[in-house]
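Changelog-linked ticket: ribulose-5-phosphate example.
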Amino acid sequence: MKERNANASSAEKQAAGIAAADLVKDGMVIGLGTGSTTAFAIAEVGRRVREEGLDVLAVVTSYQAEMLAIEAGVPLTSLAEHPVLDLAIDGADQVDANLNVIKGGGAAHTREKVVAHSAKRFVVVADDSKMSEKLEHFVPVEVLPYARDLVKQQVIELGGTPQIRLASRKDGPVISDNGNVIMDVEFGTIENPAELSQKLSMCVGVVEHGIFLNTDEVYVGRKDGSVEII
Ligand code: 5RP
């Protein structure tokens, strides 16, 4: 199973996060994703709120994002109050040449997908190690604990190799903010992300999977501090 790239420097992530935060304009209601790259975008939105009086409201995708937004001084709202968002900014575990994305390395992809689909514009922030011609990263799948074995069987029938994500070797499973377990499923190279997305969505007991097909733009942070918009 492919590990997440731990070598990407935070400078690349910071460049991407700060550049995407510049998309946020007065009066917007935005979605804030989860992870170390989005954390830079949250910090920058907060800086603009505090120093420039930026007028924004944000919906968060996880407890992690909520804590970061509160620390940074970003005013929060909810999807119940603002069901349509102007913009959502989020990270990625891998992005292919057609801007299909795999997310869920932080076990937050269910709420992230709800927020991404509530937004008029969905922008992904990533360091360049995340870019790949085709998707070949494992697919995080949030699973109802009661249906764990049933889902395991179904993803094996789809050609996947499932593994319940553990908090550590000694600890129990990772539990999502929604109270579910995460099954990381290796499919090798994913030739048809839309087809696999549909098949995973049809598995009984799957709450949500980490294939995102609705990305509008990707802000890619490079080693030299530049940002390419794809
Ligand atoms: C959380 C995610 C993250 O956005 C993804 O794992 C990327 O994280 P990072 O920016 O720390 O590399 O999908 O569920």
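Closing comment: Example verified and attached. The CA atoms of residues 204 and 221 lie 38 Å apart. The chain is about 30% helix and 25% strand.
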